[in-house]
Every structure is written in C-alpha cells, then in structure tokens.
C-alpha cells in the first residue's frame, strides 16, 4: 500500500502511517529499529531496495531523506515537505517513509525526522554516498546510536579514510570495512590451523579500493608486522599473502567469487568468497549496535603506515612523516570481527 502526501507535516505523516497499518492489517509492533537513509533522488531507489531487503532480517521503519535544494534564492525560501508512505508488501517487513525536503527545510531535516522515529528503539543513519565530514556531529547523525558510511563511493577514498580516522566516534562504521569480514574470518581461521609467527604480509587489490586498504591496515595493526600494499586489476580485493616462519599462507581470489586457500603441508582448498550485495552488508551492520573497537583501531592505524610497491599519489598526500612505532611483542593472531 502506498500513500502520497504533498505539502504535509510530520504529524500528518504519523497519522497516515497509523491509518495505513490499520488498512493492511499490519501490527504496530515488531519493528526493532529506525533506519534513516540520507541520499539523493538518483541513488534513492537502490538504497531503498537494499534497506527493504535487509528489513526481512531486521524489521524496521525506514525513513529516506531526500534533500532538494534549489539554487534560486526565491524558491530556496519556499520550504515544503512531500512524503510517500509504503506499508505491507511495498515495504519489506517494516514500513517506509520517503521524505522530500524542498527549500530551506532541507537544512533542518532533523526537525522533520525526529517526530517519526520509533519510540524506545535504536536509530541507525546510513549515508550511501556523500557522507558528512563528521557523521557524529551531523544533525541527523547526532540522533543515531549507529552511523554507517561508505568510503567506496567517495571520489578520493584514501582521503576519506583519513577523515574517518580523524572524526571517529563510537558508533561509526563503514561498509568498506564490512566487505572484508569474510576475508578477516578466513585469514584468522587459517592462522588457527597454522600456528606460526607471521613475519610479513602482502595485500593485493584495486588501486584506491578502501576495503583493500582497511584489510592491509587491519593485518598491520593486529599482527604488528610490515604489510605491503600492491595493486591489481581487481575486481576488488584479489589476494592476501602472509609469510610465516613455517611458510606462506595465501588466500587468492582472482575472479571475485571463488578463492583458493594455500598453506604449507595441506592441500589447496577452494572457498566461497563472493562479493556481497549492499543489502547483505547493511544487514550485517544492523546486527550490532555497540561500538566496533576493531574498526576504530584499524582506521586510526593509517594508510601512511603501509609499505607500497607502487605508491599512489593520494597515499603520498596522506602520508605522515613520523614512522609508526615498532612493536616488540610477538605477533598476535588476527581476531575476526
């Protein structure tokens, strides 16, 4: 069921939500959180589809905020709120409110969203692209317990990663980090089977791919060993090599779906390591609302501390002249998220 409201208010939207639930026979309970999506008209469809698919695992009220700023001084003053309400089969397992904010109202989105939040339920804000410099201090981000960005969509991912490190607050996370969860789990499991000290590592993947950078930073941070970052034609992350005193551990994924795990003394094994859809990534992030300390430690490690076989220009700009402190403690096993 869909309801369109033009030149409306938050109060009228709430009334329409109640009426729509009664009309389709949907209960008012069962939703576990409010997911606020801040996007533009061009990317709204894909973002709403991913959120709707993830709501089958996490029934939620989805609020899409689409800001329509006008360049004309006259129309900029004409504040107006249009809304589209979707319930039942048109909105996954929850309900969806699409807000289109016109004129000056676009600069005060939090005043529109606040009355629409589910009472006594967590709030998650997701920026599929064009995330603010400091998500926690953003007017909408300040309403949330969890703030999800995606550095992969940024024009300069390495600079965006540096910004995420500088502005990190508990509750921040990034889908570029979520994409490497299967890789981290597989590498940690490999070290459990091959309990040898790691002396170095190499991460291979597309240039300026933030997931590749984060995986390299995670290995360097958790193992306390030098990590070399090399580039390949992709897709995405293609290979990781960990050199141990007993031999190499290699996880190679050349085609973006099936990987091969090679370890000394064991036969090569094929493992499923496909590139996941946005809905899967979002569903994973919505499973936890507590601060991700491993992500915090990783993103603050810094891309400038990685060894680069063919240094990228953005990496040079972000480089810190101060070398990282050497860790004297023996290498630890990498812990999966």
How would you characterize the overall build of this protein?
The chain has 2 domains: 2-149, no CATH class; 181-280 and 293-318. Helix content is 31%, strand content 26%. It has helices at 10-24, 41-54, 73-76, 109-113, 157-167, 175-178, 181-193, 210-223, 278-286, 293-301, 313-318; strands at residues 2-5, 33-39, 60-68, 80-87, 95-102, 123-126, 146-149, 172-174, 198-205, 227-231, 237-244, 247-252, 258-263, 269-272, 307-308. The chain is elongated, with a radius of gyration of 22 Å.
What is the topology, as strand order, of the major beta sheet?
1-4-5-3-2-6-7-8
Q: How much beta, percentage-wise?
A: 25-35%
Structural class: alpha/beta
Q: Report the order of strands and helices.
A: EHEHEHEEHEEHEHHEHEEEEEHHEH
Percent of residues in helices: 25-40%
Largest sheet: 8 strands, mixed
Enumerate the spans where pLDDT stays under 50 for 5 or more consecutive residues.
311-337
Give the averaged pLDDT, no decimals. 86
Number of discrete helical segments: 11
Number of strands: 15
Shape descriptor reads: elongated
Radius of gyration: 22 Å
Number of domains: 2
The CA-CA distance between the termini, in Å, is 39 Å
Short description:
The chain has eleven helices and 15 strands. By secondary structure, it is α/β, with parallel strands linked by helices. It folds into two domains: 2-149, no CATH class; 181-280 and 293-318.
Annotate the secondary structure layout.
Elements: E1 2-5, H1 10-24, E2 33-39, H2 41-54, E3 60-68, H3 73-76, E4 80-87, E5 95-102, H4 109-113, E6 123-126, E7 146-149, H5 157-167, E8 172-174, H6 175-178, H7 181-193, E9 198-205, H8 210-223, E10 227-231, E11 237-244, E12 247-252, E13 258-263, E14 269-272, H9 278-286, H10 293-301, E15 307-308, H11 313-318
């Amino acid at each position: 069921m869909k309801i369109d409201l033009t030149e409306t208010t938050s109060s009228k939207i709430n009334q329409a939500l109640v009426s729509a639930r009664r009309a389709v026979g949907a209960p008012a309970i069962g939703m576990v959180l409010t997911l606020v999506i801040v996007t533009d008209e061009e990317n709204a469809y894909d973002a709403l589809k991913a959120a709707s698919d993830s709501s089958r695992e996490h029934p939620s009220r989805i609020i899409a905020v689409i800001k329509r700023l006008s360049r004309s001084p006259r129309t900029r003053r004409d504040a107006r709120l249009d809304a589209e309400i979707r319930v039942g089969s048109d909105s996954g397992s929850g309900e969806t409110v699409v807000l289109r904010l016109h004129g000056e109202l676009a600069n005060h989105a939090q005043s529109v969203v606040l009355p629409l939040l589910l009472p006594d339920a967590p709030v998650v804000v997701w920026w599929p692209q064009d995330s603010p410099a400091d998500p926690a201090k953003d007017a909408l981000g300040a309403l949330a317990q969890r703030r999800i960005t995606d550095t992969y969509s940024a024009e300069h991912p390495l600079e965006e990663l540096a910004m995420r490190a500088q502005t990190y607050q508990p509750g921040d996370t990034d889908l570029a980090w979520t994409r490497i969860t299967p890789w981290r789990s597989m590498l940690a499991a490999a070290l459990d089977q091959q309990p040898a000290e790691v002396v170095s590592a190499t991460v291979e993947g597309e240039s300026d791919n933030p997931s590749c950078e984060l995986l390299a930073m995670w290995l360097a941070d958790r193992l306390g060993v030098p990590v070399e970052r090399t580039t390949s034609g992709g897709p995405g992350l293609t290979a990781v090599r960990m050199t141990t005193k007993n031999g190499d551990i290699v996880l190679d994924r050349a085609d973006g779906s099936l990987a091969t795990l090679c370890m000394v003394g064991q036969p090569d094994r094929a493992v499923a390591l496909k590139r996941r859809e946005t809905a899967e990534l979002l569903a994973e992030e919505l499973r936890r609302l507590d601060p991700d300390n491993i992500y915090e430690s990783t993103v603050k490690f810094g891309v400038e501390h990685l060894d680069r076989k063919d240094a990228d220009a953005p990496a040079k700009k972000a480089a810190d002249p101060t070398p990282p402190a050497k860790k004297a403690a023996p290498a630890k096993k990498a812990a999966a998220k």
